[in-house]
């Protein structure tokens, strides 16, 4: 199709009249090239024009594939309409946000580009990739919000699939998402708990411990028991954003599978459905609380309570969007230097942690190794 378009563009710039009886027959199979000599007046061979036309059976094959799948078209249209209706006006809003994010990060790139273009060092190699460079792509994902930050976390966790510079840059997507102002977090807490916050908590630290893609974590102390806790709060509007983004991705996958049946072998739509269900479960902290309690029971039943622990959940101040749990102090498993300073055998500690985690960790549960 691209070759055809190019030929048409050339023809529009240099008109060429060819008598039909001079054209040789083209074999039905196609796939070859046809060379036609156009003779000017007086058979001036110096003015000979050669036209090359390539014939391909691909457009015909594509058309026949669509005809074969015509019976599936009503189902596709129905699916697209239902998904679009369930998304509602959020889809248009997210598209506007996407354009705004693209313009914002594009402006940052142009500003940085203008600063380096006239320097003696020249333009850095990373900037030549534009918005596809690791730095600016990560910034774009962060501006696009929760769904794309999750995708960034996937990139950071898959060094075998993505280049090292992208894996390293997208590490910043873990617990470094832009924080939500505490005033908004406080409003969510009041709405969810349905009582004055000072009747539940002695204090809440307004500075977040961590800000991830869908939630933000604040340190606090319970008023009744004076125990240190952490409060995990779902960020405002996250559920609507996830639904809109994942529905859009699902629509794209459905259309791609319809146009290219070969993609059905990859189960693309089924994978997108699984991702959607998994991500939407993450915004219901009640399920996470159930998983954490179930995992703690497993730890105790298997005698692993000296090696691992799941934080205790305080149900009286936990809801679908708020999770209050015991605060445990420790170090990440990736911080090997700190682990070596705490335990005599860090390798055994890591093996124990991974064994406990892989054997029985339920979805969305939290496990902490006791070191």
From TrEMBL:
Q: Where is the ABC1 atypical kinase-like domain?
A: 174-341
Which InterPro entries is this protein grouped with? ABC1_dom, Kinase-like_dom_sf, Mito_struct-func_regulator
Name residues in a coiled coil: none
Pfam families, from UniProt?
A: ABC1
Q: One Gene Ontology cellular component annotation?
A: plastoglobule
Q: Which SUPFAM superfamilies match?
A: Protein kinase-like (PK-like)
PANTHER family, per database record: ABC1 FAMILY PROTEIN, OS07G0227800 PROTEIN
What protein am I looking at? ABC1 atypical kinase-like domain-containing protein
Gene that encodes it? LOC125518748
């Amino acid at each position: 199709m691209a070759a055809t378009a190019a030929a048409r563009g050339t023809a529009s710039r240099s008109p060429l009249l060819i008598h039909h009886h001079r054209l040789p027959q083209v074999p039905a199979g196609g796939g070859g090239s046809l060379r036609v000599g156009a003779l000017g007046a007086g058979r001036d061979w110096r003015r000979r024009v050669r036209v090359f036309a390539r014939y391909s059976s691909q457009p015909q094959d594509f058309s026949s594939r669509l005809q074969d799948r015509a019976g599936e078209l009503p189902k596709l249209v129905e699916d697209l309409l239902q998904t679009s209706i369930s998304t509602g006006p959020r889809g248009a809003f997210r598209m506007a946000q996407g354009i705004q994010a693209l313009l914002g990060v594009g402006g940052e790139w142009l500003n940085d580009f203008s600063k380096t273009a006239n320097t003696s060092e020249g333009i850095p190699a990373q900037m030549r990739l534009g918005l596809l460079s690791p730095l600016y792509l990560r910034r774009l994902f962060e501006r696009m919000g929760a769904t794309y930050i999750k995708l960034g976390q996937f990139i950071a966790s898959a060094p075998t699939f993505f280049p090292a510079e992208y894996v390293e840059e997208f590490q910043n997507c873990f617990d470094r998402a832009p924080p939500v102002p505490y005033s908004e977090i406080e409003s969510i807490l009041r709405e969810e708990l349905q009582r004055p916050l000072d009747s539940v908590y002695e204090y809440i630290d307004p500075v977040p411990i961590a800000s991830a893609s869908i939630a933000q974590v604040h340190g606090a102390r319970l008023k009744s028991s004076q125990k240190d806790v952490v409060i995990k709060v779902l960020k405002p509007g996250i559920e609507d954003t996830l639904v809109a983004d994942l529905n859009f991705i699902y629509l794209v996958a459905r259309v791609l599978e319809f146009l290219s049946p070969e993609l059905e072998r990859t189960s693309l739509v089924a994978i997108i459905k699984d991702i959607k269900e998994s991500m939407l479960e993450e915004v219901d902290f009640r399920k996470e609380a159930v998983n954490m309690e179930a995992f703690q029971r497993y730890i105790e039943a298997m005698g692993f309570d000296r090696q691992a622990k799941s934080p205790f959940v305080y149900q009286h101040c936990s809801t679908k969007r708020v999770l209050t749990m015991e605060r445990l102090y420790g170090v990440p498993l990736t911080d090997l230097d700190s682990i070596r300073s705490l335990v005599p055998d860090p390798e055994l500690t890591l093996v124990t942690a991974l064994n406990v985690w892989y054997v029985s960790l339920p979805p969305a549960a939290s496990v902490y190794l006791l070191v």
